[in-house]
Design a protein that fits this description.
128 residues; mainly beta; 7-stranded mixed beta sheet; 1 helix; 3% helix
Amino acid sequence: QVQLVESGGGLVQAGGSLRLSCAASGRASSGYTMAWFRQAPGKEREFVATINRSGGSTYYADSVKGRFTISRDDAKNMVYLQMNSLKPEDTAVYYCAASQLFGFGGSISRITEAMEAWGKGTLVTVSS
């Protein structure tokens, strides 16, 4: 099983940018569809973005579309989430996740249950 560790969280002002990193170990990251999720205070975990195994396809939640970019570097076993134009509403713990089974031909509504490995999260706080 692949192990995932997130980093890069912190405090940022509204309108600012932050890049999160997810380091994979134990298995090659190239074998997995990768995704980012987040959980805001008092709310349920929600999907943010995903990228396929080749890195050629991405999909984003409407709430972050146009502001966030997911990318991967399988030579380094790394996945990234570039976050621009941050809003206070983006404040959350951000989680990296991986799936060997999920494909983009499947339903995005079922992506959460398809994730097989999860990181422990990194906190992003956006001040107004």
